[in-house]
Specification:
326 residues; alpha/beta; Rossmann fold; three-stranded antiparallel beta sheet; 9 strands; binds guanosine-5'-triphosphate; binds magnesium ion
């Protein structure tokens, strides 16, 4: 349904540029030269346009309702939602399909896929399940009448756990596209600028030599939400491991989503483990620490992988209290 909507949106943009105030009451309002055959044609165009706009608005409302229901269900499944946003043609849908193919898609989630192909549950290599959500590509100069409805489809971005901001780095206007997307995101009511955002520089297969590195430097944005960047090619499957890792790391270090809380006692004989955690192992966040006579007593938030690795140092709540009071 979304590509069709976009077709309407783009058509709308074109019509507006040619015709003026589409949907502003339908009066022809033109000069004398519009009288006669031309006027009939123009008012027909306008009435067609009005019908299209009302059809699109209705469809957007339906999408919004369906999404809301699905969001509620997804949240009850307890999955973090990772939204792919970006300018139109950036490669969001290609990336989402490619990611979903390389990882196992759980059978119980197939129902959602039938309902909405723009949502996929995937298991990342680190063992974490996330819900990927595709969104409609951003377009500049959207007709005013459609902006509200268009934003409605982005509503889920407001409630997203994190954002993958997909960029077509082979486009000569990549920088403007990024700026435009960041601006649109900021304008969404209730959107938190702190929502962690990974810049995904896509289509690197189209760049030659070290152009990618050069580009990356020129495209750095001082946006508070941006926590990292990864270069990928959705088409050729380049950079997926780094991307998955970036998603997992971000979920652990920038959100509270699904990360396990653990109490650890690391003996001084294993201080290299402690040193590693202190060095900022991105899959573990130290929430509190105490240097006791038995070792380092820590309360941490850990990713599923880190949780498995650290399980040998785990202590019960009771022991934690006891050691802490000694
Ligand atoms: N060379 C190359 N082409 C790509 C890559 N990723 C996507 N494309 C192409 O870019 C075009 C747009 O890809 P889509 O995935 O439809 O882009 P999108 O961001 O979903 O676009 P909208 O839905 O319009 O917002 C398609 O022709 C893709 O085949 C890539 O990594 N390399
Ligand atoms: Mg798409």
């Amino acid at each position: 349904m979304l590509p069709r909507l976009r077709y309407y949106l783009t058509t709308g943009a074109g019509m507006e540029a040619q015709g003026g105030s589409v949907g502003a009451g339908g009066t022809s309002g033109g000069g004398a030269y519009l009288k006669g055959k031309g006027e009939t044609q123009l008012s027909m165009d306008r009435s067609l346009m009005k019908r299209k706009i009302s059809a699109v608005t209705k469809q957007l409302e339906e999408v919004r309702k369906l999404r809301k229901q699905q969001r509620d269900r997804h949240y009850s499944l307890g999955l973090p939602v990772v939204s792919l946003v970006g300018y139109t043609n950036a490669g969001k849908s290609t990336l989402m399909n490619a990611l979903a193919q390389t990882v196992e898609v759980k059978v119980k989630d197939r129902l959602f896929e039938t309902l909405d192909p723009t949502r996929r549950s995937v298991t990342l290599p680190g063992g974490r399940n996330v819900m990927l959500a595709d969104t409609v590509g951003f377009i500049q100069r959207l007709p005013e009448q459609l902006v509200a409805g268009f934003r409605a489809t982005l509503e889920e971005v407001v409630e997203t756990t994190m954002i993958l901001h997909v960029v077509d780095v082979s486009s000569p206007t990549a920088a403007q596209q990024i700026a435009s997307v960041l601006k649109t995101l900021k304008r969404l009511p209730k959107f938190s600028p702190k929502t962690p955002q990974i810049m995904v520089y896509n289509k690197v297969d189209k760049l030659e030599g070290d152009k990618a590195a050069e580009l990356e430097r020129s495209l750095s944005y001082p946006d508070p939400g941006i926590v990292g960047h990864v270069q990928v090619s959705a088409l050729k499957g380049i950079g997926f491991t780094a991307l998955s890792k970036a998603i997992e790391d971000t979920l652990v270090s920038h959100t509270d989503f699904g990360a396990a809380s653990m109490k650890l006692l690391i003996p001084y004989t294993d201080s290299s483990v402690y040193a590693e955690l202190k060095a900022g192992a991105s899959q573990v966040k130290i929430n509190s620490e105490e240097h006791t006579s038995d070792g380092y007593l820590l309360e941490v938030t850990a990713s599923p992988t880190a949780e498995r690795m650290l399980s040998g140092f785990e202590v019960s709540e009771e022991d934690f209290q006891l050691i802490s009071e000694m």
